[in-house]
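Possible regression after last week's pipeline update?

I re-ran a chain I had predicted before the update to compare outputs. Posting the input and the new output here so someone can diff against the archived version. Not blocking, just want to make sure nothing changed silently.
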Amino acid sequence: MDFAISTRKILIIVIFLMSVLALCAAFGLGWILHAEPVSAGGGCKSLPLRLNTNQLVKPLLVCDMSFNKGKKLMAPLSSKLQSIIDAAKKQNNVSDASVFFQDFNTDDRVDINENSKFYPASLNRVALMIALLKIMESKPDSVPQGMVYNGADENSGQEILPKCALQKGEYYTIDQILETLIKCSDNNAFYLLTSSIDNSILQDLYNDLGISVDLLNPDQPKDYDFMNTEDASYFFRILYNASYLTDNNSEKTLELLSQTDFTQGIVAGVPKKIKVAHKFGLATFVNPDNQLVERELHDCGIVYHSKNPYLLCVMTKSSAPIANIENVIKDVSTAAYQFENSR
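New output (post-update):
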């Protein structure tokens, strides 16, 4: 009997000690996970972007984690991208340039010249499509099913002419207009939409994303350079996350962006088999004598690397030939792809 009692006591002590160890292990693991998220899907470390509604819910749009998390790991890419920009400035191929890079698997990122601001140019087309689809989700009858284009040719004189465009006198469904807007960056489609639909929907999107610009006040002095690369990245991040539009509309927009006909920037820096959902923007500023003062050429989008999908946004100012600026963006894209391919 004494032996049986001793054995039972020992068993109770062992079970107690194992329970204590398990509790300590669970607490320690929870503390580690709370202190250092391991992936972009693991939670928000800082700077969450939420939709500012008048309701009790505040939907999460973008979840930014700690910028210091992968700083050492990203140092080689940061140094390489900075050297490309510095060399381009030295060769007068750009006067200013900014790069935003984000790995979607790890949330590691690089932000070169993050304080520089630019005019978004045709990147506004992505914003316009998102804003239109958003209003169509909640108020389908507020957007016409189709329209006739009766305006002038707004593409006349463009340095990069679209490969397709709305034709005067022709009727187009809203889907056809959006397709031409994104795939071909058609000015006719852009002006038809903005002249036919309340601009407040685009202002609402900018407000939701925390981008400071006033599109509705005609007396407000216009600061054309109001967007940085991180601002531009929001358009693509909310589509990739499907956090602003429905899954179907997010997929629809990204599919159109993957068919964009501009291939001289980000696309030129990655293998042909890699899908890229992106949009370029080009604004040309001239003096009263029609002489070039400056160009702003941008390319932003998602590179669907098979293992490490990532976002890349490059925005530039320059008075150099377009081909020179395109090569700078290509070099940045090549460096980003090679870095991700080696991880």
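Follow-up from reviewer: compared with the archived run. The radius of gyration is 25 Å. Marking as no regression found.
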